[in-house]
Amino acid sequence: MYGGFWYNLKNAFKHQNNSLYKIIAINLLVFLVFLVLRVFMTIGGGGGLYDKMLSFLMMPASVGHFVFQPWSIITYMFLHEGIFHILFNMLFLYWFGLLINEYLGSRKLANLYILGGVSGALLFVLMYNLAPFFSERLDSALMLGASAGVYAIVVGAATLTPNTSFHLILLGPVKIKYIAIFYVVIAFANSTGANAGGELAHLGGAALGYFYIVLLQKGTDLGIPVQAVGNFFEKLFSTRPNVKVTYRKKSTSYRSEPLKDDKKGSNGATQEEIDKILDKIAEKGYDSLSKEEKRKLFDYSNKS
């Protein structure tokens, strides 16, 4: 990353390989926009119109409704209405997302978030259409929130580096595998409660996070389609900077001025070395790295 949290968040869209802060920034911006809309439209007597507009971006459980708003399988995962809902989602996304970003890189973090959100939505629709318990609420059930994508990142990080510890208030150091297990159990226990749809989405995201990392370690990346779509839009909206070549005169000969550290990062590790380290993590896990490889990866992630 380039600097502290607020610097990275403020400049999220100015840098590449910055998916964590881009996702957080999009969630925060969408939250603020809809907060302002909700207040002004409600005061102006347009509360019903606001609810209808929001429903077109939320994920419906009914397949019949979803057919007319297929975009909602993506838009729902960037919507929040409650301050504590978005606060806790973004905190967990940040804490566990830093681990995914450090070990697997920015693109795979984005893969996890999007695939987790999609998996959560699919399980939500599947259960509401098949389970008799949910049949009476099928037509009115709508879902929003980043929780499924966040659960995918939480469980993905715990699967990748299960013995990494977070220092929790009152509890001290706790291994992240126990944090992930705790939240999955809570989601399962509440899957028939008032927020059943959300809890089902949590479980769908958690399952995706686990299988994504397990398959990645075996050499299969489920996120290739997501990455392909991302690359398409990245190329579509990116502008190529003008390349200026300068020449320096020495004696009677001319030559182009060499670029310094063209292939090496500031820590001396080449991009090729970093790619090999990431491939090794995907194949054998983070614990297979040597101390020197871990140092290079850590330095690179802090300075890239």
UniProtKB/TrEMBL annotation:
Documented EC number(s): 3.4.21.105
Pfam families, sorted: DUF6576, Rhomboid
Domain DUF6576: 270-303
InterPro entries: DUF6576, Peptidase_S54_rhomboid_dom, Rhomboid-like_sf, Rhomboid_protease_S54
Recorded topology in the membrane: Multi-pass membrane protein
Keyword NAD (UniProt): no
A single GO BP: proteolysis
Compartmental location: Membrane
Class of the enzyme per the UniProt entry, highest EC level: hydrolase
Domain of life: Bacteria
Keyword Electron transport among record annotations: no
Domain Peptidase S54 rhomboid: 69-216
Annotated Gene3D superfamilies: Rhomboid-like
Main location: membrane
One GO MF term: peptidase activity
Keywords, in A-Z order: Hydrolase, Membrane, Protease, Transmembrane, Transmembrane helix
Transmembrane spans: 20-41, 83-100, 112-134, 140-161, 168-188, 200-216
Family classification: Belongs to the peptidase S54 family.
Protein name: Rhomboid family intramembrane serine protease
Organism: Echinicola jeungdonensis
Taxonomic classification: Bacteria, Pseudomonadati, Bacteroidota, Cytophagia, Cytophagales
